[in-house]
Amino acid sequence: ERLERMSPEDRRRALDQLPPERRERVEQGLTRFREMNEGDRERFREFRSLPKERREAMRKNLQQMQNLEPKRRRVVREEIQVLRDMKPADRQAHLGSEAFRKKFDQREQELLGDISKNLPD
How far apart are CA 73 and CA 112, in angstroms? Predict the structure, then answer.
């Protein structure tokens, strides 16, 4: 995000100082950032504002999501949005509800519980 705010010349100078592999990853990140809609950019900013240990836990959870079949991954992703829109206390009540337990298997419940703990407040 900081690079995106730089002038093209300053950005080029900053990128020129990076090792080739790192530069490529940064440029790919810039491309992804530019392609994000404003809602995704806001979630990215929220994620970056989390303490490092919470970001790492969230990355691990999101990697675990990749092991779900695509249909279930979509349902879990939608549930994350529901949880994100709730206050932390409401999240806990929701995670303990009968409707939640019926909708998700044990593995998905644990994953969503872990993700809920690391969502921005």
Answer: 11
Lowest mean pLDDT among 4-8, 21-25, 57-61, 80-84: 4-8
Show the tokens assigned to 103.
């909708």
The Cα–Cα gap between 79 and 96 comes to 14
Residue 3 pLDDT? 86
Instruction: Enter the tokens of residue 15.
Output: 């990128």
Q: What is the DSSP letter of 1?
A: -
Q: CA separation (Å) from 85 to 34, 81, 90, 99?
A: 24, 6, 10, 18
The Cα–Cα gap between 71 and 86 comes to 24
Residue range 38-60: mean pLDDT, rounded:
89
Query: ∠ CA 15-18-21 to the nearest 5 degrees?
Result: 105
pLDDT in tens, 58-94: 999 989 999 999 999 999 999 999 999 999 889 999 9
> What's the CA gap between 116 and 88, in Å, rounded?
8
